[in-house]
Write a structure and sequence with these properties.
- Pfam families: PFO_beta_C, TPP_enzyme_C.
- The chain is α/β, with parallel strands linked by helices.
- The chain has a single domain, classed as 3-Layer(aba) Sandwich (Rossmann fold), CATH 3.40.50.
- The protein contains nine helices and eight strands.
- It has an eight-stranded mixed beta sheet with strand order 2-1-3-4-6-5-8-7, with helices on both faces.
- Helix 1 crosses helix 6, helix 3 packs across helix 4 and helix 5 runs antiparallel to helix 8.
- The radius of gyration is 20 Å and the shape is globular.
- About 45% of the residues are buried.
Amino acid sequence: MSNLGEFEPKRPDSFDVSWCPGCGNFPLRDALALAFKKLELKPTDIAIISGIGQAAKIVHYINTHGFHTLHGRAIPIATALKASNPELVVIAEGGDGDMYSEGGNHFLHGIRRNANITVIIHNNQIYGLTKGQGSPTTMIGQHTTTQPFGVFEEPLNAIALAITLNASFVARGYVGNIQHTAEILAQAINHKGFSIVELFQPCVSFNKVNTYQWYSQHTYIMQNHNPKDKMQALQKALENDPLPLGIFYINEKIPFEEYLIAYKEDKKPLYKRSAQTEKIKRFIEDNF
């Protein structure tokens, strides 16, 4: 029985689920719905923008506004949506390959731009949709379908990277602990600025190393950590085993959309406004 409540997907006569039994996407979705409930949000308050991959299919399996877009392109589309309607809770969502590889450039510049959106990365440390190739976060030495002799590239530490770039909010969770993950997600959504939440989740079909048991044995929840202390946050981010979970870093600053001239005098979303033809006409006459 699902615990999604009003976030149960509305797909009449359809039970087609692409995720494998036991997939980490299921508890991640439960945690996300729980975070929405904690914040008393309605499905119509939220828009989830996803890229490509098994993680990105979540927009079909949860009842909110949703847009399943192109590989690696969730962040710029989510930014544009927030700029056009600041009243929406906007979430960009994808896997570790989608966000850190195909979307890596957007990840970097999304941090710089600081739109008030939440970015969720499903980190299962493998490409699941395409059957088990090494991703940017696969561990050194792990044997995959395309690295049969073992991965030798250095895994990306996106938490440390985001902190060094002064990201506004940086956190990591593990979907095996739904309550803790939901609490992190609720704080990220409530945070004013670009909020990054990396979530460890097993891929039960194509990653036989990073299992539920592995994550339980190789992670811990940070205690007495000050997320306003950048150097302490970076020190925590560089820990490898066990891997820390929780909110690493908070850096409060003005979000992107508040700099936009369209909202200097009027906070109303663009779609709620009527065209001010006389004002446009005066602007053209005065400037051209």
